Inverse folding.
């Protein structure tokens, strides 16, 4: 019978490498980055483990700990640059804590969302992070979590009431509208996303509040939009720009909608910012290099990803019975070149952006989409 050698133990491997058993354990459990273990040390441990036959049985470990070290992430549109960047930050933060992430795109469809959630729960993820589709609360699949911890991100729900991390959407719209008013604009249109959804309604409320404070009309003739897509942005912008008395400025409630506004303005032979000023939500690389560079309301995507993962892991480690936490993160206005100062008849220069103070938490709204 051929001689076989038993796999080396974790402690023996640590002695051979001249490092601690804790370091070996952290590398083999995928937590090297979290504990700031160098790439060189990580590679040494993994190489030696493979050569010695030391293999960590992740399934056995999961059964013993009753955890899979994985979380599920449901987002509504992976093609939207905001959600793509948010997913990246969530995955990066989860990896830092030794967790893997299963990602699903609900495609803004409640049935797809429900099926994806069922699949993730069947994979026994330790918890869920969800940017929910804006559906009636009675139909929402988040009512059936099977006791699994869940935290919402970007979008909120009234029922079921769950922990959430979001930006101050209302304050961002107020900042943008006040910026336009300060530069002489009095007829300010709004290209919205999905009416009746949380983030959209909070931004509309901020726009209306700023207009009301300045004694300006904010009627339905200044609002158009049916969804968060370039085509929806084009259609909404056409509606506003073809009115007998068209707005001198537009607030687009999403970066994809801003692309639609720019396309519609080009079709109508309207020049931004000479004929139309434009401010939008969410910064992207193209926003700073397009001509003109776009003035935007920036959401703290890195902080959103970090906060939502940390909040979920708190719930996984120690499920709480207290009221769900809701963390509202501040936004800031970044001024560039897409706003014309009607008082001076010129484009406003782009001074260094100032971070806004922490805003008060807005009132809870309905289920929502960007």
């Amino acid at each position: 019978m051929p001689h076989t050698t038993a796999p080396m133990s974790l402690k023996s491997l640590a002695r051979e490498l001249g490092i601690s058993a804790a370091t070996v354990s952290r590398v083999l459990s995928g937590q090297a980055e979290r504990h700031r273990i160098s790439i060189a040390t990580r590679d040494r441990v993994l190489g030696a483990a493979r050569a010695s036959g030391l293999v960590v049985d992740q399934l056995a470990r999961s059964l013993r700990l009753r955890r899979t070290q994985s979380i599920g992430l449901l987002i509504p549109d992976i093609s939207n640059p905001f959600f793509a960047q948010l997913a990246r930050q969530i995955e990066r933060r989860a990896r830092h804590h030794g967790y893997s992430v299963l990602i699903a795109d609900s495609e803004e469809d409640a049935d797809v969302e429900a099926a994806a959630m069922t699949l993730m729960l069947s994979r026994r993820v330790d918890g869920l992070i969800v940017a929910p589709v804006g559906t009636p609360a009675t139909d929402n699949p988040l009512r059936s979590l099977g006791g699994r911890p869940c935290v919402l991100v970007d979008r909120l729900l009234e029922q079921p009431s769950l922990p959430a991390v979001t930006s101050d959407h209302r304050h961002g719209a107020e900042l943008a509208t006040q910026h336009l008013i300060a530069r002489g604009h009095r007829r300010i249109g709004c290209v919205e996303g999905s009416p009746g959804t949380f983030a959209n309604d909070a931004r509309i409320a901020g726009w209306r509040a700023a207009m009301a404070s300045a004694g300006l009309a904010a009627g339905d003739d200044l609002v158009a939009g049916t969804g968060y897509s370039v085509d929806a942005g084009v259609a909404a912008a056409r509606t506003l720009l073809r009115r007998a008395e068209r707005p001198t400025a537009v607030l687009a409630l999403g970066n994809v909608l801003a692309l639609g506004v720019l396309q519609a303005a080009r079709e109508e032979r309207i020049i931004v910012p000479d004929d139309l000023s434009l401010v939008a939500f969410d910064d992207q690389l193209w926003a700073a290099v397009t001509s003109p560079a776009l003035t935007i309301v920036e959401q703290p995507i890195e902080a959103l990803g970090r906060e939502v993962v940390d909040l979920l892991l708190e719930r996984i480690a120690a499920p709480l019975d207290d009221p769900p936490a809701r963390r509202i993160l501040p936004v800031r206005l970044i001024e560039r070149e897409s706003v014309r100062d009607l008082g001076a008849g010129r484009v406003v220069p782009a001074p260094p952006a100032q971070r806004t103070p922490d805003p008060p938490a807005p009132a809870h709204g309905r289920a929502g989409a960007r």
Remarks:
- Residues 1-5, 58-63, 348-369 have pLDDT under 50 and may be disordered.
